[in-house]
Amino acid sequence: MLDYAALQALAAVLREGSFERAAQRLHVTPSAVSQRIKQLEERAGQVLVQRGSPCTGTEAGRHLCLHLEQVALLEHQLRSRHPALLPAMAEHTPTLKLAVNADSLATWFMQAVAAFTAGGTELLDLRIDDQEHTGLRLREGEVLAAVTTSAAPMAGCDSWPLGTMRYIAATSPAFMQRHFAQGVTAQALARAPMMVYDRNDRLQEQWLQTQGLAPSEAPPRHFLPSAGGYVRACEIGMGWGMHPMAMVQEELAQGRLVELRPEARIDVPLFWAHPRSARAALQRLTDCVLAAAHESLH
Fold first, then answer.
1. Using N-to-C axis directions, what is the helix angle for 4-16 and 59-81, rounded to 10°?
2. How far apart, in whole angstroms, are the C-alpha atoms of residue 19 and residue 30?
3. Helices (H) and strands (E) in the chain — how many of each?
4. For residue 200, which of 35, 99, 127, 250 sits 20 to 30 Å off, Cα-Cα?
């Protein structure tokens, strides 16, 4: 049987980043937190916390924290449905860690969030990452569920197809005239600044490859990790980039953005995944995510 007081100490250290702040959050001394984690590591037979600044969890430590979150969520649901069964226990509102790509968060995923939070008191901790890397966060135990592009089933996880997000390559009319007056060619693209969300963003390279326009040398790049700021940067002529079509309909209609090659679009398939062991605990969230995706994605 797991020591849940020790698990709470472990989760607090990983959440707060230090033994001192975890102790403050739990209203105990730092030595008490250290002792609980030491006993938990001895029982587990391995290190669970990488001591440092901040403290981080090993893979085993992160998975134990996810187990604690699942238990807290199940208890919360049980208390909501049958309050008399857990009358003496202090209420603890669970927080669910989710990984989602910025474009989904800026468009359809907020509908799922709105429906989920309106139907309960659970809290959300959203981690933003490129859609190609959210699955890694799930596999490593950093989050409880993720929107990902991985069609291959992950070990121990359930996965549902959500639909596809359609992307277009677009920029401002002035940028088009300045850099592509003679056509959108590999030579012109080698010189034209390209907008990139972050170092994990490979969507622009994917578009260039599919169009047979990949330049021999990497084009100049601006990095801008903000979904709204990224669109605005292209609108003012900083560079060209890939945009979710659902996010830039107004800019296209008003002529503030134009496509580099109309009809040359990329459809990115998205999936919702979480550990199979969390199926019951996450059913309501999964229903909200699937409903929002069905309404908004292709």
1. 110
2. 6
3. 13, 11
4. 250
- Cβ(204)–Cβ(268) below 8 Å: no
Q: Which helix (H) or strand (E) holds 164?
A: strand 157-171
Residue found under tokens 């940067």: 233
Beta-carbon neighbour count of residue 163 at 10 Å? 18
Distance CA 147, CA 273 (A): 7
Q: What is the pLDDT of residue 68?
A: 85
DSSP-assigned states of every residue in 81-139: H-GGGSTTSPP---EEEEEE-HHHHHTTHHHHHHHHHHT---EEEEEE--TTTHHHHHH
Mean pLDDT by runs of 10 across the 298 residues of the chain is 86 91 92 92 91 90 85 77 65 85 95 96 92 88 92 89 97 98 95 95 95 90 96 98 97 98 95 92 95 96
Residue 54, preceding peptide bond in cis (omega within 30° of 0)? yes
Residue 286 in tokens: 């999964």
Report the interhelical angle of 30-44 vs 4-16 (nearest 10°). 110
Show the tokens assigned to 252: 């296209």
Q: How far from 217 is each of 191, 220, 239, 288, CA to CA, in Å?
A: 9, 9, 17, 44
The token pair that represents 118 in the structure block? 């309106």
Residue 69: what pLDDT? 84
Q: Which uninterrupted H or E stretch holds 134?
A: helix 134-139
Q: Pairing mode, if any, of strands 145-148 and 95-100?
A: parallel
How far is the CA of 106 from the CAs of 147, 172, 198, 231, in angstroms?
Answer: 13, 21, 16, 11
6/251 Cα distance (integer angstroms)? 53
**In contact, 59 and 26? CB cutoff 8 Å:** no
Q: What CA–CA distance (Å, rounded) separates 157 from 230?
A: 33
d(CA 10, CA 5): 9
Q: Which helix (DSSP H) or strand (DSSP E) does residue 123 occupy? A: strand 123-128
